[in-house]
Amino acid sequence: MVTGRILPRVIAAIGLAALAGCSTSEAAISPPPGVPVNNRCGTVNIAVNPWSGYAANAAVVSYLLESEMGCKVATAELSETASWAGLNDGSIDVILENWGHDDLKKKYIDRQKIAVELGLTGNKGVLGWYVPPWMAKTYPDITDWKNLNEYAELFKTAKSGAKGQFLAGDPSFVSNDPALIENLKLNFTVVYAGSEDKLIAAFRKAQADKTPLLGYFYEPQWFLSDVKLVHIPLPNYTPGCDSDPEKVACDYQPYDLDKIGRKAWVDSGNPAATFIKNWQWTNADQNQVAKDMVQNGLSAEDAAKKWADAHRTVWEKWLP
């Protein structure tokens, strides 16, 4: 998606007509399903964070807002923290996929009262450390984090120097990996792939070439249907164990992903806000659309239309 791009659609005007032959009353002719009667939602400003699952959310939500409700949609490609700042300055109306961020909720929802929660997306989020499946098969005990130092030599690269490489994704992703490595006393250093695409390419190559790789990854993610990366559990997550980012020594918490809206926009009664409150789907839904966009070469609109055409009974329930 292009930053700030407005995606206009032609909206058909449907008039009300009296039924012929009715002498005492008039009846409206109902518009065909999917044709908006008017545009009461104006332009909806959606933040798009830099991972394919989020882009899939934005594609389907944008497509349905435009085609079914007559809205216009403007998307802005932003980091997670910049998206919340956009709620504050009014440039963003909604964040479609929020991964926790209790600190930002306290700031913008509890204290400043400029944002509100819009309910769950239906997606279950998992963050963590992964290795390609060939490694787990060849070195079965590598899936115990306590054994990682024994294999650190395997993971050395030109970028990691004397330590094993831990491959992270986009530097803007909010993660605990540098602190985890330090606090768990692991002989590794974080190296950034630079983007989700590069992270996926690195894991794909590591599996194909049987080269060692340890890195950050997450679900939902369409790539896991191609290469079933193996998750390495860290010390069990307990509520509050990650409250101090510098001292964290536990695994990532499991997330029920949610949506965040700009309070003034939601309180205005905008029907798009109601639609987004109602919108819920599954990891499989998101992965299907994301894979069509990233691997199968479909545009965001075509991927969204393909999903919508096959799931009408799902999304009709989201309409206000």
Cα shape: globular
Strand content: 15-25%
Stated plainly, the CATH topology of the largest domain is called D-Maltodextrin-Binding Protein, domain 2
Total tally of structural domains: 2
- CATH C-level label of the largest domain: Alpha Beta
Examine the secondary-structure arrangement and name the CATH architecture of the largest domain: 3-Layer(aba) Sandwich
* Low confidence ranges: 1-38
End-to-end span in angstroms?
26 Å
Q: Percent helix among the residues?
A: 25-40%
Tell me the structural class.
alpha/beta
Tally of strands:
10
CATH superfamily label of the largest domain: Periplasmic binding protein-like II
Order of helices and strands: EEHEHEHEHEHEHEEEHHHHH
How large is the count of helical segments? 11
Largest sheet: 8 strands, mixed
Overall mean pLDDT stands at 88
- Our Rg estimate from Cα atoms comes to 23 Å
